[in-house]
Amino acid sequence: MWPNKGELDPRPIQGTGYVKVQSQRPLNPVVPMGAVGELKVVN
Predict the structure, then answer these.
(1) Where would I find the beta strands (DSSP E) of 1-43?
(2) Among 7, 17, 20, 40, which is most buried by a count of CB atoms within 10 Å?
(3) Coil, helix or strand for 37?
(4) Buried b vs exposed e over 7-25: b needs ≥16 C-beta within 10 Å?
């Protein structure tokens, strides 16, 4: 849910009500594609 470095932060300001934000795909994932622990973003 955290934005990539240098991107705008779509999360609401702390103290405001809950707002669902869209998932962020990492620019540089720690686990490479095709590996057992690969991140799979489901919308």
Answers:
(1) none
(2) 7
(3) coil
(4) eeeeeeeeeeeeeeeeeee
Between CA 35 and CA 36, with CA 22 as vertex, the angle to 5 degrees is 10
Closest by Cα among 43, 22, 20 to 7: 22
> Within a 10 A sphere around the Cβ of 29, how many other Cβ atoms?
12
Alpha helices in 1-43 (DSSP H): none
| Contact present, 29 and 13 (Cβ < 8 Å) | no
Amino acid identity for residue 17 in this structure: G
Q: pTM here?
A: 0.46
- Cα–Cα distance measured from residue 43 to residue 22, given in angstroms and rounded to the nearest whole number: 8
